[in-house]
Amino acid sequence: MPTEPNLKPCSYYVVRYVPHAEREEFLNIGLLLHSAEEQFLDCLITRDFHRVKRFHPHADLEFLRELQSYFEEQIQQHEDNLPGLLEEMQQSFSHAIQLAPQRSVVAAEPQAELQQLFERLVGKRPAEIPAADTRMRIKQSLIQALHRTQVWDNPRFERRIPAEPLTHPGNPFHFDFGYRPSMADAKSDGHLKLIHALSLHRDHELASVLSLTMGYVRSKQPAELTAVIEAWPARGDKTAGHSRRILEDAQITMRPLAEVDAYAASIQSELA
Predict the structure, then answer these.
(1) What is the C-alpha separation between 117 and 31, in angstroms, rounded?
(2) What angle do CA 233, 239, 240 make, to 5 degrees?
(3) 130, 31 contact by CB (below 8 A)
(4) What values do phi and psi take at 163, rounded to 5?
(5) d(CA 175, CA 197)
(6) Nearest-angstrom CA–CA distance, 252 and 255
(7) Planar angle of CA 156, 162, 166, nearest 5 degrees
């Protein structure tokens, strides 16, 4: 089926709760949506446990409450091989939790499509949609801003940049994006600018990796890194505050999602 230029092919998988597989009865409790083009995978799991209890009065609700966090952790740990993770899930989930066969859809914004499909195939959520505080959701919000400013398809804007040639042999790390500003820009000397998304609250180890990696990069060439974050740390959030200090000490610039459109526009002007 032909697609409009702004639509991206995606795959989605309904997550089913199957308490008695032999009865072939199930309840749709969640959804996974994957966009290979944008290296995106995210999930929504129901919080409507009244519905679950009506379906299966003896359901282990504590187990089901942990599924959202479980899927988020798996996505984070397997970010470099999302298709492999999906294949593993399809093969290993064969008891109480199962993935329905893959289905295809086209979407302008995968995150929004995930929410719309969830409402249509699973049901309304009595609680708020999970906050944009995972690395995957922060990165997706950044990507949408890059689309809106026509940066995404600029041939000089690079994606998934390996750190190995910038640092030392064997370094497996990849930066999300990068570019070299136009030499015509009087404010720029054309040096490398890198971009990486992370959650200050969730990704304190990644903050340390970025700090160390940028030290190696800068030992070889002038370079800057901007970390796109969910928001500035709330008062009392010691974990996020610690991550912020690590990045500041490494002279890594931070831009919260509230500024992501202005940041993307600044990239567009540097590439013009």
Answers:
(1) 8
(2) 25
(3) no
(4) -80, -20
(5) 9
(6) 10
(7) 90
CA atoms within 13 A on the CB side of 5: 4
Contact predicate 64/49, CB 8 Å: yes
Q: What angle do CA 146, 252, 77 make, to 5 degrees?
A: 70
CA–CA distance, 12 with 215 (Å, rounded to integer)? 39
- pLDDT per residue over 68-98, tens digit each? 999 999 999 999 899 999 999 998 887 899 9
Tokens 């072939």 — which residue?
Answer: 24
**Between β-strands 40-45 and 27-35, what pairing exists: parallel, antiparallel or unpaired?**
antiparallel
Q: What is the pTM of this model?
A: 0.85
Rounded to 5 degrees, φ, ψ at 164 are -55, -55
Tokens standing for 186?
A: 């009087």
Side chain identity at residue 157, one-letter code: F
Q: Which long-range contacts (CB under 8 A, 24 or more apart) does 128-132 make?
A: 129/44, 130/44, 130/68, 130/72, 131/230, 132/230, 132/257
Alpha helices in the chain (DSSP H): 49-55, 61-65, 67-77, 82-92, 110-121, 135-148, 204-218, 238-249, 260-271
Instruction: List the one residue out of 84, 85, 76, 83 whose CA is nearest residue 205.
Output: 76
pLDDT digits (tens, 9 = 90+) for 193-246: 999 999 999 999 999 999 999 999 999 999 999 999 999 998 899 999 999 999
Most confident of 6-10, 84-88, 187-191: 84-88
Quick one: tokens of 40?
């995106």
Report, in angstroms and rounded to the nearest whole number, the Rg of the chain calculated over CA atoms: 21
